[in-house]
UniProtKB/TrEMBL annotation:
EC numbers for this chain: 3.4.21.105
Cited InterPro entries: Peptidase_S54_rhomboid_dom (IPR022764), Rhomboid-like_sf (IPR035952), Rhomboid_protease_S54 (IPR050925), TPR-like_helical_dom_sf (IPR011990), TPR_rpt (IPR019734)
Keywords in alphabetical order: Hydrolase, Membrane, Protease, TPR repeat, Transmembrane, Transmembrane helix
Protein known as: Rhomboid protease GluP
Subcellular location: Membrane
Gene from which the chain derives: gluP_2
Entry's family note: Belongs to the peptidase S54 family.
Domain Peptidase S54 rhomboid residue range list: 225-358
Membrane topology: Multi-pass membrane protein
Uppermost EC category: hydrolase
Entry-linked Pfam families: Rhomboid, TPR_19
Gene Ontology terms: biological process: proteolysis
GO terms assigned for molecular function: serine-type endopeptidase activity
Length: 512
């Protein structure tokens, strides 16, 4: 009796230490359920210590377990469940039972595979047990043989206490996800949808003028003092696909962060991350931008903080999934054009440091929180300083202003506004383009051609630049060069009316 009892509890303890998840508290009659590993071919493993004398006892137990597992299957809404039942018994039944041993017994959507493990079977080694569990075991049979009844009972108490401690640890882990309900998550989703509808009704969510009017990130306007554009972009989206992707991400990741950190902390993390995403985009991306991606990456950053503060909990609950999500999103960002990676990374950093500053509930550490807040202010302040003092930003602002002056037919002022930038080797293609057009309007054709050529060197496939340079050559009477440039422009945009009219004009002039 002592040997089989000791072996039972030694096997249970080793499976526990191997990381097998117990899914039901132990019963008084020495019954343990484990969740089976994925590669085992089973869904559940039942280790059961009870002596059996007759075949009918096995049959009756199979029926009972089939009923119990079917109830569990319905509660879990599973299509089917397969239970491996390992029963430890001192002796085998006195009547015929071998036809049941190891043979799957299926009834409806539940399969029970009963395996009887007697003291004689396990007396020499645990190979039979290893075969069914599909794992190696370090259970020492010789040590088990030496155990007294008191030793076996103490081993049982130790294992049950370990299970009890494990269950308490799970309760503490569950408590981490119960610090708040996703109230703000759903509210933010509603705001995103409402703002998208307003954009669509006001000119379209992909219309630059409409986006700018509603608060999209516009570097030129930020430089002119519209600082609020660092916050408003997180509520706007460019196109339906953009909205759907970010709404799903907010629903899944944002809800988890709000449950872990609580609603107040979540809102701080979300808003500050969104602002940090806008700051990073302001520094590294001159294009108009909008979207909640920075704020959502901030939520991912907050979960990464959880990985540092509670590594075991993080990787046991969501770690792998979160890391995969971050890598996939960054991978998409670096391989697909038009995605604001700076905004994503800025949000990730902002979310991480905000989480470091606000901490998890019941983790109040004033000194560390103060240091994290100072780091957050320093990083944000440094980003803003860099953005407002960046040569690229100044050039972008000057280009935008010159474009407005050109539209107002103030050509001389447009040229003057860009004069200090266009002679630099890092002058943007757009600045060179507007400068060239302004000079052409003032009759400086050679100078205009020179700077349009420089613009095309930086952006050789832009059909508008090719067209404008073709026009200048027509003005100078150099139709051969004009034709060549126009052919390239038409290759990019073959249906453009202006290009086609110029082509017709050149052809007519050549036949005169």
């Amino acid at each position: 009796m002592n040997v089989i009892d000791s072996l039972f509890w030694r096997v249970v303890d080793e499976l526990r230490q191997k990381g097998y998840e117990m899914i039901q508290s132990p019963y008084p009659e020495d019954e343990i359920f484990f969740e089976a590993p994925r590669n085992s071919g089973y869904d559940l493993i039942r280790l059961y210590r009870k002596d059996v004398n007759f075949r009918q006892e096995i049959v009756r137990d199979i029926k009972e377990q089939t009923y119990r597992i079917n109830q569990l299957r319905e509660a879990m809404r599973k299509r089917s469940l397969h239970l491996l039942q390992l029963q430890f018994t001192t002796d085998v039944p006195v009547d015929d039972w071998e036809d049941l041993n190891g043979q799957p017994q299926k009834e409806n959507k539940v399969t029970v595979t009963p395996v009887l493990l007697s003291a004689d079977t396990l007396q020499n080694d645990v190979n039979e047990l290893q075969k069914w569990l599909n794992t190696s075991l370090a259970v020492d049979v010789e040590e088990a043989k030496k155990d007294t009844a008191e030793n076996a009972m103490q081993l049982k108490r130790n294992v049950l206490q370990a299970f009890d401690d494990q269950e308490k640890q799970r309760e503490r882990e569950r408590a981490v996800f119960q610090n708040g309900r996703p109230i703000f998550t759903y509210l933010l989703i509603a705001v995103q949808v409402v703002m998208f509808l307003l954009l669509e009704l006001s000119g379209g969510s992909t219309n630059t003028a409409t986006l700018t009017a509603f608060g999209a990130k516009n570097n030129v306007l930020i430089l002119e003092g519209e600082w609020w554009r660092l916050m408003t972009p997180m509520f706007l989206h460019i196109g339906l696909t953009h909205l759907l992707f970010n709404t799903f991400a907010l629903w899944s990741v944002g809800a988890a962060v709000e449950r872990i950190y609580g609603s107040g902390r979540f809102l701080l993390i979300y808003l500050i991350s969104g602002i940090f995403g806008s700051i990073a985009s302001f520094v590294f991306n001159t294009a108009i931008a909008a979207g909640a991606s920075g704020a959502i990456f901030g939520c991912l950053g907050a979960l990464l903080y959880l990985a540092i503060s509670n590594r075991k909990l993080f990787f046991r609950t969501m770690g792998t999934n979160i890391i995969v999500i971050i890598l996939i999103n960054l991978g998409i960002g670096f391989t697909v054009s038009g995605i604001d990676n700076a905004g994503h990374l800025g949000g990730l950093v902002g979310g991480f440091f905000t989480a470091l500053a606000v901490r998890l509930p019941k983790q109040i550490q004033p000194v560390k929180m103060l240091l994290a807040s100072a780091a957050l202010l320093f990083i944000g302040g440094f980003g803003l300083y860099t953005g407002f003092h960046s040569d690229d930003q100044k050039q972008a602002a000057a280009t935008s202003e010159a474009a407005s002056l050109f539209d107002e037919k103030k050509y001389s002022e447009a040229s003057e506004r860009l004069e200090e930038y266009v002679h630099d080797k890092d002058a943007s293609a757009e600045a060179l383009h507007i400068y060239a057009l302004s000079e052409a309007q003032q009759g400086q054709l050679d100078k205009a051609i020179q700077f349009l050529q420089k613009s095309l060197e930086k952006d050789p496939d832009d059909p508008n630049k090719l067209y404008h340079l073709s026009l200048l050559y027509v003005e100078k009477g150099e139709t051969a060069k004009a034709e060549d440039l126009l052919a390239k422009a038409l290759k990019q945009d073959p249906q453009n009316d202006q290009f086609l009219k110029l082509k017709q004009y050149i052809e007519n002039s050549q036949t005169r």
